[in-house]
Amino acid sequence: MVSEGIGALFLETHNWGKAARFFQALGYEIEFETDHQSGQLRSKVGPPVFIAEIPEDRTPGMQLVLRIADAEAAEQQLKDLGLEGPFEPTHFGTMMTTLRDPDGRVWGLQAPLSGHTSEQA
């Protein structure tokens, strides 16, 4: 399994509108918005930033997601290394899992759905 680089940055916020305006001031453009206070922004270079609003009683988190080409192959390699990481379909059209590195940080791995290329995901 070889990473194809950073696939996305996922951020949680208490205020979608303020967070979106912050990134727009930095040169990002809204690629799409959902009907549940979230959306994805892109700059001219680099991975997209997906922002989701969460309730005030939760602490906003952040997760860096690495892009890989094939979820099935990666899942087997993870099992061979003794790592659990079943890939599951997301509501935004990819397969995703999370892992912890040796220092306890959480990383996401994202792959296209079967039959799609990584450029389509």
UniProtKB/TrEMBL annotation:
Instruction: Output the superkingdom of the source species.
Output: Bacteria
> Which SUPFAM superfamilies does this chain map to?
Glyoxalase/Bleomycin resistance protein/Dihydroxybiphenyl dioxygenase (SSF54593)
Protein name per Swiss-Prot or TrEMBL: Glyoxalase
Record organism: Prauserella flavalba
